[in-house]
Fold these 4 entries.
Entry 1:
Amino acid sequence: DTGVSQDPRHKITKRGQNVTFRCDPISEHNRLYWYRQTLGQGPEFLTYFQNEAQLEKSRLLSDRFSAERPKGSFSTLEIQRTEQGDSAMYLCASSFGTGLDGYTFGSGTRLTVV
Amino acid sequence: DAKTTQPNSMESNEEEPVHLPCNHSTISGTDYIHWYRQLPSQGPEYVIHGLTSNVNNRMASLAIAEDRKSSTLILHRATLRDAAVYYCILRRRQGGSEKLVFGKGMKLTVNP
């Protein structure tokens, strides 16, 4: 297992377009998290799955954002009608059990909305 | 969420020990103290965590104050690869969901 994989690494899109990112967690990890990070800031929590159930969603996440984790494996994060303010690094992390031994993060997807 | 306070930045010299402080005066009894670091253009990387006792692993040591209101991450021999943003985070379980809440972190510069 090579860790948490995210695809694509970079995405440039025009304002108003929809984008979808994919995250493949470590296979035995049952928990999956999405974060967003802008320049100079720490990662900001977006949403969290335990297996296929989405257990928490940040109040900062507008209705244009949706995430899924079908069958408790990979996850997708979709942003509809992108805005320039959506430009950021989108990070995925996974953990096993309670995650107390740490999350494993992917390298992220860098989104630029032009 | 309980907050942590870290310096904005620190500098150290290669091959010397470095102590990274963190204050968390509002910590509750069930909060774990976690440290992550983030190298440029990478996702954060787990470093260490603890509850009350000092902890050691292959990457670092974590010293926790007796009143738990502060902690120190210790890198015993800094290398250039340790230059990163370090995040001190309180890990709290709320309502069956756990999440890490990151602050701005502290940038560590390691001089050769």
Entry 2:
Amino acid sequence: EAGVTQSPTHLIKTRGQQATLRCSPISGHTSVYWYQQALGLGLQFLLWYDEGEERNRGNFPPRFSGRQFPNYSSELNVNALELEDSALYLCASSLLVKPQETQYFGPGTRLLVL
Amino acid sequence: DAKTTQPNSMESNEEEPVHLPCNHSTISGTDYIHWYRQLPSQGPEYVIHGLTSNVNNRMASLAIAEDRKSSTLILHRATLRDAAVYYCIRSNNAGNMLTFGGGTRLMVKP
């Protein structure tokens, strides 16, 4: 069974540009989560999508947005990129919406903003 | 606010057991305890989770204190491939996201 996949693996942008990151969950999983892992800040929750709807959002500005498609894949968009947006962006998926449910992570997209 | 406390780092010798502690003194009755680990240059990987009882799986064991204010992840025989950052996380119905703290960096010496 294929795991969570993310694309691209690496992305280089300049300040002010927009970045689009993509995630395909494990087959059958309807929930997709996005996390940011910036150097020195640890993993921080960004967004949670389930059944096409945004269910929860972390403490990030509105220029971080996303969506979930009918096939449950997801996109994370970051507008007006800033240098501090440089980070590893991780996507995870889960089968059910329960507190005991395991989240399965992808390998991440490393975004570098110059 | 991660609401869990873990040592920054621990060292172990290969083939020996490792006990990774986690303090979650403000845990509520419905919070699950999850452990994930992150190997270098990879996304986090699920290890184990529990609510009240001790749990075992092929990767590790989870010992939960009777008052649930602390737990211990037990790797029965550490290997070099177990070198990673181990995260202890509480989860409940509030938002479904995982709140990661700093984790414990486990170093395994041959």
Entry 3:
Amino acid sequence: QSVLTQPPSVSAAPGQKVTISCSGSSSNIGNNYVSWYQHLPGTAPKLLIYDNNRRPSGIPDRFSGSKSGTSVTLAITGLQTGDEGDYYCATWDSSLSGGVFGGGTRLTVL
Amino acid sequence: HVTLRESGPALVKPSQTLTLTCTFSGFSLSTSGMSVTWIRQPPGKALEWLARIDWDDDKYYIASLKTRLTISKDTSNNQVVLTMTNMDPVDTATYYCARMRLIATTYFDYWGPGTLVTVSS
């Protein structure tokens, strides 16, 4: 049971938009920055979003993040087949004094 | 150019101690705001944060494994070592090390390729 809650799966057609939610509490998302990671098969996880809504250099603006209270959302527009994989939210939990991940969301591009 | 790479045994027996080494380049763990963390992923399961060591030698561990984990750093050789005692088959996982950025934020910006550790007799 992960500290952060994500939907197990989402799907959409190529070119469409999908959103992935991540909910937590005041000890984690509510008072700390959140990051998002893309984990494609056979590769290491890759940073997509940091500080809730900032993109590292090289990440296309098709990927965006937002935060409201104790929840965050990752949006992906213009879906491509290469986007298929697992997506994780993560943050620091001040009560646990440890890092926490969501359970991961499997994205399928139909 | 930042890189990290994990090394260690691919197979350990139950009850043994696992020692993993993260060798990195492109940054110094003596620089303020830098940290190296360990994360694992059991087959078919989610990522799980394990431990972190900071530039000032502060250390943090996941509560459920705190008694079994030890993280340390060798700044001069750019290495971070994680030891996990009393290994069990449920500890079978791909283990990743990652650079963690601190100072008013927390995120993992560079990851190693991971190393698969199987616990079996």
Entry 4:
Amino acid sequence: DGGITQSPKYLFRKEGQNVTLSCEQNLNHDAMYWYRQDPGQGLRLIYYSQIVNDFQKGDIAEGYSVSREKKESFPLTVTSAQKNPTAFYLCASTAGWGYGYTFGSGTRLTVV
Amino acid sequence: GENVEQHPSTLSVQEGDSAVIKCTYSDSASNYFPWYKQELGKRPQLIIDIRSNVGEKKDQRIAVTLNKTAKHFSLHITETQPEDSAVYFCAAIYTGTASKLTFGTGTRLQVTL
């Protein structure tokens, strides 16, 4: 999948449950990002990481958490504090500033 | 921070006609402007990009123009085909710093037969 893999493709979450979305890349990219996309809307940045063991909040970080223990991996946890988590989640990576992002194929999360 | 506005939100053209999507940005320091195409349920894919030292860039039927003074850039698609139907996003960033790519809200392009 173009060097960046997201799993699962579909995920269902019960009320009050934490769930973790996986993002793995084999592109040797330093920077990784998580975006949320709602129907008919643009991409909103949740968290991003420029280097291992470091990450910054994006525009809508509340109710989400991340870790960056390995260069290849940037998992996103959607916590029970996120009241409206149903959306399409996209992970992306880039070799550095000035390069276009490579996106994963996305995870569609639905609250049941 | 950077703010990117994109117009129109929807665009319908007949096959063979041209389509133009316009974006404006707020941060005069932004120097890299990519465009992404997203088909329904798929990931966004980079289709063309332009840097601030260039005024225009073309790749077959797709072109992007940049007006740094006015802080706007546009995507031009000529001889549109049904497979061009998708959502297109513009974006802007100031490279070389720990900044993030800011996306426009998207334009849904529909190419009709």
